[in-house]
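for the recovery benchmark. C-alpha cells below, seq after
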C-alpha cells in the first residue's frame, strides 16, 4: 500500500506511525491535584496556574495511534516532537460510508479536495490498520524527543515517498488555511438560498450588512 517499514534504529521522521502513544485528557474546570499531604484535591486551573512550583496532578491517559508531524530537520534535535492522532476513518469524517469501490473512490477524491482537516490512511494489516483510518489534524499530542526515540519499538511503519509528500502538503494547507465565511460575497437572495441549504449550520450563518433586509 502506501507504507514502508524502516529499520528499528532508523531516525524518527515526519510520517512515522506509532501505536499506543499517550494522549492526556483533563479539564481546566476540574483538575485533580496532589496536595502536600499526598491527598487528591479537586480545583480549577485558576487556583494553581500562578504557582511558582510544579504542581502534581492526576490526569487521564489514553493509548492512541499517532503520526509524527514535526519536520525531519527538527525531529533530530528539537526537545519535543508533535504527533497527530490517528482515528478510524468513520469517526473522523462522520458521513454515510460507501459500500462499493466506485463509491469509495468518489468519496475519497471529493473529500480530499473539500476537507483539509484529515489525511486518509488505507487499511493495511502489515502496519496494524485492519480498517480505514485517518489522521485528525485537530487532535495533536506532544512527546519528548528522547522518549520517542527510546520508544521506536512502537513504530509500526511510515508513509512512503509519494504519500509523505502529499501528507506534508495537506498538513501545510491545514495550518495555513485562511478562515472566512464563504457566503460573504453573496447577494441577499443568494445568502438566503445558501442558509436554507445548510439547516444544521443555520445558527452559525449570519448575514452581512449588504445581505440584510
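predicted aa per position
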Amino acid at each position: 500500500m502506501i507504507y514502508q517499514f524502516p529499520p528499528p534504529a532508523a531516525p524518527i521522521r515526519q510520517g512515522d506511525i506509532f501505536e499506543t502513544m499517550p494522549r492526556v485528557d483533563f479539564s481546566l474546570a476540574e483538575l485533580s491535584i496532589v496536595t502536600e499531604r499526598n491527598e487528591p484535591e479537586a480545583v480549577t486551573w485558576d487556583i494553581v496556574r500562578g504557582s511558582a512550583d510544579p504542581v502534581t496532578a492526576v490526569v487521564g491517559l489514553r493509548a492512541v495511534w499517532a503520526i509524527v508531524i514535526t519536520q525531519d530537520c527538527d525531529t533530530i534535535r528539537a526537545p519535543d516532537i508533535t504527533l497527530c492522532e490517528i482515528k478510524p476513518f468513520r469517526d473522523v469524517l462522520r458521513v454515510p460510508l460507501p459500500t462499493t469501490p466506485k463509491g469509495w473512490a468518489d468519496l475519497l477524491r471529493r473529500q480530499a479536495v473539500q476537507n483539509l482537516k484529515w489525511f486518509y490512511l488505507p487499511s493495511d494489516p502489515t502496519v496494524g490498520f485492519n480498517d480505514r483510518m485517518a489522521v485528525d489534524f485537530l487532535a495533536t499530542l506532544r512527546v519528548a524527543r528522547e522518549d520517542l526515540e527510546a520508544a521506536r519499538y512502537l513504530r509500526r511503519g511510515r508513509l512512503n515517498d509519494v504519500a509523505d509528500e502529499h501528507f506534508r502538503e495537506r498538513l501545510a494547507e491545514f495550518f495555513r488555511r485562511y478562515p472566512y465565511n464563504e457566503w460573504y460575497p453573496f447577494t441577499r437572495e443568494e445568502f438566503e438560498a445558501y442558509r436554507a441549504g445548510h439547516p444544521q449550520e443555520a445558527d452559525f450563518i449570519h448575514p452581512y450588512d449588504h445581505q440584510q433586509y
